[in-house]
Write a structure and sequence with these properties.
Layout (H helix, E strand, L loop, with lengths): L10 E2 L2 E2 H14 L9 E7 L5 H8 L5 E4 L3 H5 L6 H7 L1 H21 L6 E5 L2 H14 L5 H17 L6 E6 L2 H11 L9 H15 L11 E5 L4 H15 L11
Parallel strand pairs: 3-5, 3-6, 4-5, 6-7
Antiparallel strand pairs: 1-2
Helix pairs in contact: 4-5, 5-6, 5-7, 6-7, 6-9, 8-9
The structure holds thymidine-5'-triphosphate and magnesium ion.
Thymidine-5'-triphosphate binds next to helix 2, helix 5 and helix 6.
Length: 255
């Protein structure tokens, strides 16, 4: 330890007590392993194409925020298999496999430890279950026994692991805008996604996060107008910045 200033202290049983305390404090401040057990955790939710990644990129510049983008690269390459592509090509066959892997990789995101006091995640275990598995189940693309297995894992994980979300930021888009963005970015796996799918996912997000009629809304929700163009969207982010960075408690009117 670097001696910042000379300390005399006093001695008990051959130990200089003041030096010992200062040394402990300095070590705990400098230690690269000083992680927080539960950072203020913000899940960024919203339809496919709502701009979650753009939102995360904006908040990445703050020193006190740890940002976790969705593990889509893993979904595209699970031991050489593109599960996202398989799921869109043959959803009846692959939805369960895909959603099982989504659930595992999202759990890992929840478990990741950080040094910053705020953790910003693109999606969560919750939207995977409450929006996507929900949709696949409604459409008969995932059979009831498969949904039951996903649910058993979901219940076990959320009971025994720290998957707590403290705030949800809902990037609300109209389905038309989300669909236009999906077409524009042209992700190869998403080429066959019809507008009706995006419309239905929108309704499910709305039921879950706005109307609160579907499943369990696990945290307070901030709703942003994510239809806004990229050129002005940062103003919308900044409006809610203090809440997202946990610097201002939420007032009822923004919920
Ligand atoms: P999103 O999780 O919505 O991510 P995105 O990058 O498309 O969103 P944004 O533009 O707002 O950044 O979806 C990624 C892809 O994965 C999309 O094709 C939908 C699919 N998906 C599922 O099928 N099941 C799931 O559980 C999740 C989380 C995504
Ligand atoms: Mg994204």
């Amino acid at each position: 330890m670097i001696e910042l200033f000379p300390l005399k202290g006093f001695t008990i049983g051959g130990m200089n007590i003041v030096k010992k305390i200062v040394s402990k404090m300095a070590n705990s401040l400098a230690s690269p392993t000083s992680v927080l057990s539960h950072p203020f955790t913000v899940a960024v939710e919203g339809n496919v194409g709502s701009g979650k990644t753009t939102f995360l990129n904006y908040f990445n510049k703050f020193d006190n925020v740890g940002v976790f983008a969705e593990p889509i690269d893993l979904w595209r390459n699970c031991n050489g298999y593109n599960l996202l592509d398989l799921m869109y090509k043959d959803p009846k066959k692959w939805s369960f496999t895909f959603q099982s892997y989504v659930q595992l990789t999202m759990l890992r995101q929840h478990q990741k430890k950080i040094h910053q006091p705020v953790k910003l995640m693109e999606r969560s275990l919750y939207s995977a279950r409450y929006c996507f598995v929900e949709k696949m189940s409604r459409d008969g693309l995932m059979a009831a026994p498969s949904v039951a297995v996903i649910d058993e894992w979901f219940k076990y994980i959320t009971k025994f692991e720290d998957t707590k979300v403290d705030l949800i930021v809902y990037l609300k888009t109209s389905p038309e805008v989300a669909y236009e963005r999906i077409l524009k970015r042209n992700r190869s796996e998403e080429r066959t996604v019809p507008f009706e799918y995006i419309q239905a996912l929108h309704d499910i997000h709305e039921d879950w996060l706005c109307r609160k009629t579907l499943h369990n809304c696990v945290a307070p929700v901030i709703i942003l107008n994510a239809d806004l163009d990229r050129s002005v969207i940062e103003e919308e982010y900044e409006r809610f910045g203090p809440h997202i960075l946990n610097k201002m408690p939420l007032q009822a009117e923004v919920l």
